[in-house]
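BUG: 3D viewer hangs when loading the predicted structure for this chain

Environment: internal workstation, default settings.
Expected: structure renders.
Actual: progress bar stalls at 90%.

Input used:
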Amino acid sequence: MIANKVSVKPQATRMASIARPSGARMSVVRSVVAVQTAPPQTKIQQIDIELLNKKLEAKAKALIALEEQEIAARPKVVISIQREVALGESWKVVGRIPELGRFVPEVAPHMKWGAGHVWTYEGRIRPGQWEYKLVLRKPDGAIVWEEGPDRKLEVPEGKGPNDVVEIKITDIKLPA
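Structure tokens produced before the viewer hung:
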């Protein structure tokens, strides 16, 4: 008597037919696709994962709340410029610190337009001396950097949430 040998593969396979055009006729290409199947998770593993996710979410929320408290305790910085721009253009404040986009204009904060063509940035910035520039964002997304060296922003130590550091810019030069 001859016994048939049956081999069990550790992975499941399936046949897939893929139709491809070939000139005026269609040809069918058969290929074998190996599909790895992950072992099913036990209930204990699922409970552990859910518990870890809940702990991680709680820690993330606590860190966010802590950062919001820290930001609220910083002094307010107000930077303004009076300058008329074309329709669709806007001013941004770009600086070395995260609050000013780390010198990446795409993520830097926009200044808000107000009466009399006054553009204003208001934000809470940590104490220290920081470098920044103003940039003009064109309607097509192009960025025009102001000329000259970086500006200096001094936020004194010991200032709190009720203190305001105000800067009025009057001497901005853009490339011709």
